[in-house]
């Protein structure tokens, strides 16, 4: 029998459109002979809409924006039956990038309903989303990182000059300013001067209350894909070459100006070190399912971990599926593996003892 799969996408997030692109790509690659797929769309306002079962790829992104007259907008009715004791789906495949989808919130909903779901758990998702907590965990794991400063909006409003001076005392220009809880390079700016630094912080605060200011470095941007649960596998390495100052939102999804080199040209010992670090980062956040690990590699082969992404894009130009394609895992097979890993992790949890 086909597995009943709920595909959740969209979301109340700055990365809403990215999620739609990912959902369209997944629907174009999934094996409909194995899965009965139901699209579940979350609008930018946070309204849940459930569509009819689809048995073939959808033609356009607009087809994913399910109209309001579909099933009643009751989240629970999408996921469980009227008595709330039978699952409507065998597994959920969340394709929600950024806030309210990649940060552990929707994963918590699936956990409470005891629904198997693809990808990282509440802990892995939340720690992978918050760049400050992520960096602190990487530090504990002994992973090399570039210097950084972090603070919250209230601290900035009360002590702007103090924070600017702290950045300049501990970091050198250029600096990169980022919202702590966002992906797809949304809200990120490069600062060459104090004035630009102040403007970049104000811009980032539009997207999050917590800010990270990182030391810039002249280095290659190298990424590896991690797949698995307790015994993860790592893909070949890929290199990003962008014509912009950094791999920003436009470079990733819009203008096609970025070159992805897969496999990246690396010395064997550097590649092995990157593989080891990618696994260590995956375990540091207690990852499950999938992670893309991003690194900087300098001219003298020094490696710094930049971050991990717990729900990397699946668009046709996304690095994660491309890395696995070059590691002899086809797109459709990758989706099958991720779903199998979701069942594996769920079954492990069912064996835990919940009474004394």
From TrEMBL:
Lineage of producing organism: Bacteria, Bacillati, Bacillota, Bacilli, Bacillales
Similarity annotation: Belongs to the D-alanine--D-alanine ligase family.
Any one biological process term the GO annotation gives: peptidoglycan biosynthetic process
Catalyzed reactions: 2 D-alanine + ATP = D-alanyl-D-alanine + ADP + phosphate + H(+)
Pfam families listed in its UniProt record: Dala_Dala_lig_C, Dala_Dala_lig_N
NCBIfam families associated with the record: D_ala_D_alaTIGR (TIGR01205), PRK01966.1-2 (NF002526), PRK01966.1-4 (NF002528)
Transmembrane residue ranges: none
Name of the protein: D-alanine--D-alanine ligase
Organism for this UniProt entry: Metalysinibacillus jejuensis
Cofactor or coenzyme needed: Mn(2+); Mg(2+)
Domain of life: Bacteria
Keywords in alphabetical order: ATP-binding, Cell shape, Cell wall biogenesis/degradation, Cytoplasm, Ligase, Magnesium, Manganese, Metal-binding, Nucleotide-binding, Peptidoglycan synthesis
Active-site residues (renumbered): 15, 184, 318
Record note on cofactor: Binds 2 magnesium or manganese ions per subunit.
UniProt subcellular location: Cytoplasm
Residues that hold Mg(2+) 1 according to the record: 294, 307
């Amino acid at each position: 029998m086909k597995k009943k799969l709920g595909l959740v996408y969209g979301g109340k997030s700055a990365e809403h459109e990215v999620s739609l692109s990912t959902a369209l790509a997944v629907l174009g690659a999934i094996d409909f002979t194995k899965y009965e797929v139901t699209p579940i769309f979350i609008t930018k306002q946070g309204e849940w809409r459930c569509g009819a079962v689809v048995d073939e790829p959808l033609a356009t992104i607009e087809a994913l924006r399910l109209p309001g007259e579909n099933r009643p907008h009751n989240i629970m009715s999408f996921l469980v039956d009227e008595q709330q004791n039978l699952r409507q789906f065998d597994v959920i495949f969340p394709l929600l990038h950024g806030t309210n989808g990649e940060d552990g919130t929707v994963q918590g909903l699936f956990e409470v309903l005891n629904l198997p779901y693809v990808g990282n758990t509440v802990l892995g998702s939340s720690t992978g989303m918050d760049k400050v907590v992520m960096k602190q965990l990487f530090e504990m794991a002994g992973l090399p990182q570039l210097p950084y400063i972090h603070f919250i909006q209230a601290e900035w409003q009360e002590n702007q000059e103090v924070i600017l001076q702290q950045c300049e005392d501990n970091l050198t220009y250029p600096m990169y300013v980022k919202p702590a809880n966002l992906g797809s390079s949304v809200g990120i700016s490069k600062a060459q001067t104090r004035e630009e630094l102040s403007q970049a912080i104000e811009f980032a605060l539009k997207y999050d209350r917590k800010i990270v200011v990182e030391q810039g470095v002249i280095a290659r941007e190298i990424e590896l894909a991690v797949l698995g649960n307790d015994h993860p596998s790592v893909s070949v390495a890929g290199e990003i070459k962008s014509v912009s100052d950094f791999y920003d939102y436009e470079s990733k999804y819009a203008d096609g100006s970025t070159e992805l080199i897969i496999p990246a040209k690396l010395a064997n010992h550097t590649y092995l070190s990157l593989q080891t670090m990618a696994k260590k980062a995956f375990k540091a956040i207690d990852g499950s399912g999938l992670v893309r690990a991003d690194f900087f590699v300098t001219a003298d082969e020094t490696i710094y971990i930049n971050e991990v992404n717990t729900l990397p894009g699946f668009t046709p130009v996304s690095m994660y599926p491309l890395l696995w394609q070059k590691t002899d895992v086809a797109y459709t097979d990758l989706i099958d593996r991720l779903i199998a890993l979701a069942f594996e992790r769920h079954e492990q949890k069912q064996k835990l003892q919940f009474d004394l």
